[in-house]
Amino acid sequence: MSDRAKVMTLIILLISFFCYTLFLYKENYSSNAEYGSIADKGKRLWQEKNCNSCHQIYGLGGYLGPDLTNVYSQRSEVYIKAFLQAGTNVMPNFHLTEEQMNEIMAYFKSIDSSGYATPAKLKTNYDGTIER
Amino acid sequence: MMEQLKDKKPISHFFIMTGLLLLFSTLAFGVVGAFQYVFPGLFRNSFSFEKIRPLHVSSAVFWILITACGAVIYYLGAVKNGVWSVKLAKWQWLLFTIAVIAILVSYIMGIFGGREYWEFHPIFAIPIVIAWILFLINVIKSVKIFRKQPVYVWMWLTGTIFFLFTYLESYLWLIPYFRSNIVHDMTIQWKSYGSMVGCWNMLIYGSSIYLMDKISGSEKYSYSGISFALYFLGLFNLMFNWGHHIYTLPAPKYIQYISYSVSMTELLLLGRIIYYWKSSVNTARKHYHILSYRFLLAADLWIFLTLILAIAMSIPAINIYTHGTHITVAHTMGATIGINTFLLLAFVCNIFNIHQPTTEKRITTGLYITLIALPIFWFSLIIAGVLKSNWQMHHSNEIPFSVMMYSLHNYFVVFLISGILLAIGFFIIVGNLLATFFNNQPTKNNITNA
Ligand code: HEM
């Protein structure tokens, strides 16, 4: 392989990569946790307490606790708050204030509205792809 | 501190020493994490899992990154008669070391940025980015002429440049536009992470090709068409295959199609490994770099196992069964231990030029222990993952999560015991390598200032 061929291959790959990248950045998703909103504050709190080290969103995160993508529609607010207030025998009590619990709840509501994370509900095709 | 480094051991050895200490903390926190799996609630109020996991995972990531940088600096120095600036490398090391210590302390204090793998506060990204820019300058300036370079130099260059891009990309969430929709946010997050792993693999695989050349005494492969074809295949995958992390997200379908088809090209890599397995062993065997050779061989086996699992997981219809289960953990740890750690240890043994019979014997014993423990560790996670997958697909409505986790208890016990054994094997290796660093002067086995 000549140096010229190598450089050409590299350039083609780089151009495709950056076009794909820009396309993905621009991809228009409707905002479900607008900057400054309660849901956005909840997201920051979720990160600051590192909830993701035990819980998952869309199956990504740690594995010690359950996936919480759709917890908002699966459980009542009272139920979720009771967990947050008391902790469990594995999860510590993070001593969240009422306001912080509301922020987390708004975040749960926003991620819940983005779609479902139950793999059993996905349809598989013969070519190996999946569909919602 | 900078003065102390002067005229003593080469700077690459300090990168490696820091890396080895981080491997030590990876193992220690990993064992604590595994205890927490078996005894739920252990240290719940002082050192709960949300601290232990980042301590373990960040130590692992920095063990890999810092040692890979040390190996590149050392080997680049050997190829180019010294790196461009040792001073720059010293600053890079110092920045990395300070940042990593601060990050681990911040975890203990409960301060987080909360993004997976890089769970530290974003402020610590600043010294890391500066250190990486210094590394980038050093690599580019050391290479100097870009014509007729072997494939590993291409790999070091692309790995270094792309890492900077993907690392910065992983912080786009700080801009409100990028985090205001969870699906978009996670898409960009995993786009950057997927490519980032490809970048450090470029640094590590590049170094292993250099080392194989050295062991076999022939540079033919590094300049061959096949090596460049595989390099471009790797780069193509680095750029486009990351979508397999997010198949189950409600993201646009084309991400799935692109990633699925690109990931399948990795079958070519698998084919090549099987085809060249025997010949690579024979070439390497001729020469006397026994420790490095053994680690390379161990990595070869794990590349094979990991690739089979990775390719299977890249098929969306299979991925919905493995995603979110311990099969993913098995894959991640299989790759970071079986491939990255073994390859890095091969470099360390070569760079420290270990030939002292007792040390050699002890390190070999450590390696054998890890080779026995790792498959058990890996399978226990896979079995736990299969059972969780069964629950996730069929029983999550009627059986609560905690009951399902309890039913996996026995597999977690096997995971813990094999994990302790694995850690013991690595402790023996790390202990002996660190003793070599601190006791004698590791000899420079190449003409290098680095
Ligand atoms: C060289 C050694 C090791 C490396 C490089 C390593 C690397 C990793 C990585 C990258 C993860 C994240 C996995 C994921 O998110 O999918 C992880 C998770 C984990 N590792 Fe390790 N690991 C090592 C050894 C160990 C050992 C010896 C143990 C236990 C005895 C252990 C226990 C764990 C646990 C409990 C988790 C968390 C799983 C979860 O999220 O629930 N690791 N490790």
Number of helices of chain A: 5
- Supply the CATH class of one domain in chain B: Mainly Alpha
What name goes with the CATH superfamily of chain A?
Cytochrome c-like domain
How much of the sequence of chain B is in beta strands? under 5%
Radius of gyration of chain A: 20 Å
Number of helices of chain B: 18
What is the CA-atom radius of gyration of chain B, in angstroms? 21 Å
- Mean pLDDT of chain A comes to 94
Please report the distance between the alpha carbons of the first and last residues of chain B: 17 Å
Which structural class should the secondary elements of chain A be placed in?
mainly alpha
Largest sheet of chain A: 2 strands, antiparallel
> What helical percentage do the residues of chain B reach?
over 70%
- Major beta-sheet overview of chain B: none
Uncertain spans of chain A: none
Examine the coordinates and then state which fold CATH places here, giving the name of the CATH topology of chain A. Answer: Cytochrome Bc1 Complex, Chain D, domain 2
Instruction: Tell me the CATH superfamily of one domain in chain B.
Output: Cytochrome c oxidase-like, subunit I domain
Largest interface: A-B, 66 and 77 residues
Uncertain runs of chain B are 1-7
Q: Mean pLDDT of chain B, rounded to whole units?
A: 92
Given the C-alpha coordinates, what overall shape of chain A results?
Answer: elongated
